[in-house]
Amino acid sequence: MATKPSLSVERLSRHFPVTTRRWFKTTTAVVKAVDGISFTVGEGETLALVGESGCGKTTTARLILALDRPTSGVIMLGDTNVHDVTGDDYRRYREQVQAVFQDPWSSLNPRMRVREIVSEPLVVNRKRSRREIGERVAEVLAAVGLNPSHADRFPHEFSGGQRQRIALASALSSDPKLIILDEPVSSLDVSIRAQTMNLFRDLQQQFNVSYLLIVHDLAVARYMSDEVAVMYLGKIVEQARTEALFHDPLHPYTKALFAAALPGHPDVQREEIILEGEVPSPIDPPAGCPFHPRCPLKIGEICETVVPQFRPEREGHWVACHLYPEETSAPGAAEA
Ligand code: SF4
Predict the structure, then answer these.
(1) What are 265-295's pLDDT values in tens digits?
(2) Is 210 exposed, middle or buried, given 0-12, 13-18 or 19+ CB atoms closer than 10 A?
(3) Would the CB of 291 count as within 6 Å of ligand 1?
């Protein structure tokens, strides 16, 4: 990892029991929404978690926001173990970890004025005076390119892009260490996506904040992140620095994701990879490699029976696939 970690996630799992009733028989199964994942986010850096819906990205974000408790594993923000914090410590923790969600129409309370929305993360810390809070609101509104004199307006008086700036101003107001960006530009008009992504990047430098970017759009991941982790059925199947991953993806699932994405330039030719079938049900995941029922490069019985370990194939580039023979075991190994 290039810089000191701001966030460190170690062997994190979230399993949900699911009970089904059929005729007179009750069965309880376990959904492994997140299954033994490990990663770090460097100080002032962006890690993108990419993958299809239901791969565990959002559950991971909820665990880091302390909105849910893990089944096992550890989340450290700096020296703080997230799931040890209670009371005032929990309030301080939530000042340090903020989120910006996909849809600024629904994530901003329409009955609150911008001033109240932006100052919300600040008022939990009762040590700040009204004047200090007012100054901070004006400062972050100016930083995101909004006029501080508009602080008494309501969200509906702003465009979609401006509302996302209000959400970002609110997230930045408490000077957090980490902001979770959950599909931050996917609901915005294409014409303002680039400028919004630039704003996120500029403010990251200005405020020295780390981002965990939850995203399905590979172009956004490439533009905004320093490192990418690809998730499939609750596990990380490949992770590398962004340019290394985009230049030479190793895992067949990552290759298929890239092949399905629109190229950045019309002259760019891509090998066509057609993925067969749907993502399997997490209630009954396949044995062996979880990707084997859809994998166009499956190499036989080993893929159907043996879980590939998550291991470094080359420096800083990790993959869980039998195409790359195992030499070492590693933290975050993809366990059954
Ligand atoms: Fe495909 Fe086998 Fe690699 Fe899984 S382990 S991605 S099935 S080649």
Answers:
(1) 555 555 555 676 777 877 888 999 999 999 9
(2) buried
(3) yes
